């Protein structure tokens, strides 16, 4: 995997996933409209963390096939986060504008993961 990065921190997708974690924790922190919906907050935050951590864990496996499997999980978690931002909007936990921006961010991250997956399959 050294052909594209020496460590997972160099990966654009990992850096974007890290940013999504920060945004998700900020959007659903104490004092937010979702403050007392513990299961919702936990689920969306865990899904965001899953993206970042699966990218890192898969990278460290040092085998393309295993990295692909972890990237697939990360991509699925991206979809989960995107879906949950619809719920957050529907429950008025955040503004429609913020939900749209977060869903687009998640969609771009998912596309980046898919691009890396295609590159690894070559």
What is the element layout, followed by pairings?
Layout lengths: L11 H16 L10 H23 L3 H27 L5 H26 L1
Helix pairs in contact: 1-2, 1-4, 2-3, 3-4
How would you characterize the overall build of this protein?
This protein is an all-alpha fold. The protein is 75% helix and 0% strand. It contains four helices and no strands. The model has no long low-confidence stretch (mean pLDDT 94).
Sum this structure up briefly.
By secondary structure, the chain is mainly α.
Number of DSSP strands?
0
The portion of residues assigned to helices is over 70%
Enumerate the spans where pLDDT stays under 50 for 5 or more consecutive residues. none
| Rg over CA atoms | 15 Å
What is the multimeric organization of the chains shown? single chain
What's the number of helices? 4
Mean pLDDT: 94
* Secondary-structure class: mainly alpha
Strand content: under 5%
What's the order of the H and E elements?
HHHH
Q: Termini, distance in Å?
A: 13 Å
Largest sheet: none
Shape estimate: elongated
Identify the notable features of this structure and list them briefly.
single chain, 122 residues, mainly alpha
